[in-house]
Please model this.
Amino acid sequence: MKAFQVANVNDYALIDIDRPVVEAGEVLIKTSFAGICGSDLHIIHGQNPFVQFPRITGHEFSGVVAAVGDGVDHVSVGDHVCVDPVIGCGKCYACRAGRSNVCANLQVFGVHRNGGFGEFTSAPASNVIKLPDNVSLEQAALVEPYSIAANVLSRMAPIPGDTLLVYGAGVIGLTIVQVAKAMGIERIIVTDIVEERLAAAKSLGATDTINSKEQKVEDCIQEWMNGEGVPLIADAACIPALLPEILRIACPAGRVGLLGFSATPSDLAQIEVIKKELTIVGSRLNNKRFPYVLEMISTGRLDPLALISHRISLDSISEGIQLMENHPELTRKVLVEMR
Model:
């Protein structure tokens, strides 16, 4: 079969490789669509400390069941499915606590095991989710980035009337906007330095935007929130130096969700956290949020196709990667069509 493989840092190509063998408890999927993620670029450039080379990347994908191994009974050949890329061991403390997305022995498709940028992919049956009849394979390929948004918002525990501020209008920031709107959060503020991204955020549900090259975020929030601050802040910009500002503009009893993987330390003034009794949560991957996202798509509350800016073939995946790297202001989700 044909597949996109990253052999080592900055060494990638389309290759021919044997089709995966279906083991007991696994499902073989003929891949239909796969999304290119910014983290796929991090793998290519050696910025992901967890990846094991060589690796067929891709963790956002959907397809049709081609075969099932012994012991698999919840999906059948021909079913349309998507795959949750997070595999927990089921034994460590995090798994026992119901937090398999931070499993001590975590495996992720496209990082620790081969992912969806191939014509066929094998997956543990427990990670394979049958699609509702009214959810297309194209929509289903984008469930994963929305599961990231659903996870961080769940960790922040919104209550009715909350305002949300999103730092960063890249793909994850935009998915947070869409999921927040689908959840019923009425006021969603987005800040970024790229006007095209802010326009995209507005089109997808943001009520207010701040270009932080032209306006001070703190000044805008002070004015708009009558000096009280913001209850919910999602940091999808992932810039460690922004944390002091984030803590200053969070309101008392506010919740801050962090998504960045930077090892660079952030300044943290404990007085801001303690006097307001802030909740600061990390959010990694997703903790079984796929059914929730599929339900939002199925009921029409969430439109993942609105996130797509480009569609390409597997043969053109290198061009898609270059497009994302050279023109990030023009790309949202680049979707690869396999068939």
The radius of gyration is 20 Å. The longest strand covers residues 26-36. Residues 218 and 249 are 6 Å apart (CA to CA).
